[in-house]
Design goal:
It contains three helices and no strands. It is an all-alpha fold and 101 residues long. Helix 2 packs antiparallel against helix 3. The termini are far apart.
Amino acid sequence: MIKCVGNLSIKRKLLLTLIFPSVISLLFASLFLILLEITEFQKNTRDDLSTLATIIGNRSTAALSFPDFGVETANENLGVLNTLPEVQSACLYDAHGAVFC
């Protein structure tokens, strides 16, 4: 590799000296931006799901408090989660730790 560079003209050597660091810095900047976007996406998804869990939790309190209306309300609350691709599964538990249906 060094012999190949040694045989180049001064014009080519200077051009190589300019291009090589530029390409390396562009690669590092691209990698940094990709990692930044991934972490930002994860943070936003985590925040959205946390907010959604809080809302569903508050709405489900009424369903668990009033068993007469609870099954319909619980199914309605969990039905909203079926439309979201981020949510893989969801269920409600009663005070005894059993799945609420």
